[in-house]
Amino acid sequence: MAGVGDVLRATLKGVTVDSQTFNNVYHYVVASGTETNYTTIAAGIETALQAAFVGLEALLANDVLTGELELSEWDAANDEWDGKATVTADVIVGADVGQPLPGGNSIVMRFITESLRRQGRKFIPGLIEDNVDGNDIAAGLLTAASATAALLNDNIGAGGIIITPCTFNDDPLSPHFETTSKFVQTAFVNTQVGYQRRRQPGDGV
User: Fold this and answer.
1) Do 180 and 46 touch, CB atoms closer than 8 A?
2) Crossing angle for the helix pair 139-152 and 38-53, nearest 10 degrees?
3) What backbone phi and psi angles, to 5 degrees, belong to 101?
4) What's the longest Cα–Cα distance across the chain?
5) Is residue 205 part of a domain?
6) Closest to 28 (Cα-Cα) out of 7, 46, 2
7) How many other C-beta atoms lie within 10 A of the C-beta of residue 99?
8) If phi over 0 gives left and psi between -120 and 50 gives alpha, with beta otherwise, what is residue 58?
9) Which pLDDT band, with edges at 50, 70 and 90, does 197 fall under?
10) CA–CA distance, 69 with 14 (Å, rounded to integer)
11) Is the pLDDT of residue 41 over 80?
12) Which of 60, 103, 149, 155 could staple 187 via S-S, CB 3.0–4.6 A?
């Protein structure tokens, strides 16, 4: 059962240019309520993410497509993620037929948290040449991405719980291990193209 203080991880999986795979990871802490059905929670997150991206996906390359969302819960007793549910996730369905940039080129969203030293970041693939001038992101795309970032900052109602987006440290070597830092309703989109380096095949944005 998910209850107040529990930490959830939603991993949004998809493909981008040249069929490269990517993962977008979202962390949440349960702010109120309880819910025993994790599929209900996953579906609630998927619905919220879909609503957040609806104004942006038309400007992303049509190579970009998400397929599923995996929900996990942090098991503090064993210091590991416990897989709970997987749902279909048509969150991003890119529609722009323009020439895409290489898959690592991304829109970078930054989310301010309660701790000044910790920020949330999201790398969104699917940039096309027409929406970039040198390293600068075009105004129309920047506006759409900013609207998406603002929605990703919001609390989500999922079944019987309200969840708040946050960062979460699952590195046992870090002094901040097992700590969360909630988003504080301030989000920014970098005006220049970012690049997500993949550390191993299949990982990334």
Assistant:
1) no
2) 160
3) -80, 160
4) 50
5) no
6) 7
7) 9
8) alpha
9) low
10) 9
11) yes
12) 149
Residue type, 130: D
What is the pLDDT, as a whole number, of residue 198? 53
- C-alpha–C-alpha distance, residues 85 and 114, integer Å: 29
pLDDT tens-digit series, residues 161-181: 999 999 999 988 888 888 999
Strand ranges (E), 17-160: 21-33, 65-75, 80-88, 105-113, 119-125, 132-133, 136-137, 156-158
Is residue 77 situated within a structural domain? yes
- How far apart, in Å, do the first and last CA atoms of the chain sit? 30
Does 103 fall in a domain? yes
For residue 85, report the phi and psi dihedrals to the nearest 5 degrees. Answer: -165, 155
Asked whether residue 151 is assigned to any structural domain, the reply reads: yes
> Exposed/middle/buried for 18, CB within 10 Å: 0-12, 13-18, 19+?
exposed
Q: How far apart are CA 164 and CA 33, in angstroms?
A: 12
Q: Print the domain residue range for 181.
A: 7-194
